[in-house]
Amino acid sequence: MDREHDQLTPATLAVALGRPERAPGAPVVEPVTFTSTYLAGGPVNYARVGNPTWTALEDVIGGLESGDALTFASGLAAIDAVLSLVPMGGRVVAPAHSYNGTTGLLTEMAGEGRLEVSAVDISDTAAVLAQLDGADLLYIESPTNPMMEVADLPALVREARARGIVTAVDNTFATPLLQTPLADGVDIVVHSATKYLSGHSDVLLGALVTAPTDPGRELHARLLTRRSLHGAIPGPMEAWIVLRGIRTLSVRLERACASAAELVDRLSAHPAVTRVRYPGLGAMIAVEVHGGADGADRVCAATSLWTHSTSLGGVESQLERRRAQPLEVETVPESLIRLSVGIEDVEDLWCDLAQALDQA
Ligand SMILES: *Cc1c(COP(=O)(O)O)cnc(C)c1O
């Protein structure tokens, strides 16, 4: 990011960054570069190490988070790279509730003796701090998927830094438009770009962002080495699809957040709903309904506009009973339905959801 870009707002950066250099006749959009290798003598010699289409996307994601981005084959590949930094037998403090692939990966690595996990309620700051001494990584997700718990990032990061513990925050739910963890001193930001950044439910891709500081650059170099040697790289076409999607991030999110706030009010007044979980930001909502797992299953089966599918962050509204997923942890209530609010008309969304809730 050059100096003039420092003055621009995130909505503008999402559109302006990652473009080819301005020259008469140059393309306006970064092309997809399909090549496995490069002519000798340049900065990158092989396409497992670098690709210009990744670089354009990394410029945008890095600019939005005010750091240096690396893209990966998926969100989980990016998370795996972060966990690979933990020394053999080291300890990770992580949320008891988080994306179920993250808890699944941590559980698997712990089962193999690769690392230890201290699972905490990430919204209970005192409980997290009680586990920090001697830890190697504080892994945070906020808001959490699907329980919508919110972590006190500045307080947790201050204490982790004082103990020399690396911090990572999964920022998938908030996006850099609503939360920039590097500004709180976090070392690594994690994204499943599969969700809001791409926004159209048609691609998988992940990203990590590190701070533009000396320790941040050192982490970036280690993570780049991991990516190059483990090979969990995005395809150039996938990077291009995310680059195209991220251009409209701010208008998509603005609409989705406004609709989510409206739906939260109406859901809270619906007789089938026993609890609404909404952290006050973003476009993700969790509701618990009467009738337990069966009631929630009936709701999910009864929508015609909302799509009954896993995943989130697309232009199309989606809903799902999370405990229907085999990996979901048992402390997530059986009747919890996760709602990802898209960009359809809010009255159409409510009409479909209200009649489905009547089936609970
Ligand atoms: C989906 C998701 C992931 C995993 O991302 P993939 O791109 O599916 O690998 C990680 N964290 C959160 C919060 C997610 O929602």
From TrEMBL:
SUPFAM superfamilies: PLP-dependent transferases (SSF53383). Pfam families: Cys_Met_Meta_PP. InterPro entries: Cys/Met-Metab_PyrdxlP-dep_enz, Cys_met_metab_PP, PyrdxlP-dep_Trfase, PyrdxlP-dep_Trfase_major, PyrdxlP-dep_Trfase_small. GO terms for molecular function: transaminase activity. PROSITE patterns: CYS_MET_METAB_PP. Keywords: Aminotransferase, Pyridoxal phosphate, Transferase. The keyword Protein biosynthesis does not apply. Its cofactor is pyridoxal 5'-phosphate. Belongs to the trans-sulfuration enzymes family. PANTHER family: CYSTATHIONINE GAMMA-LYASE (PTHR11808:SF15), TRANS-SULFURATION ENZYME FAMILY MEMBER (PTHR11808). This is PLP-dependent aspartate aminotransferase family protein. It comes from Ornithinimicrobium cryptoxanthini. The lineage of its organism: Bacteria, Bacillati, Actinomycetota, Actinomycetes, Micrococcales.
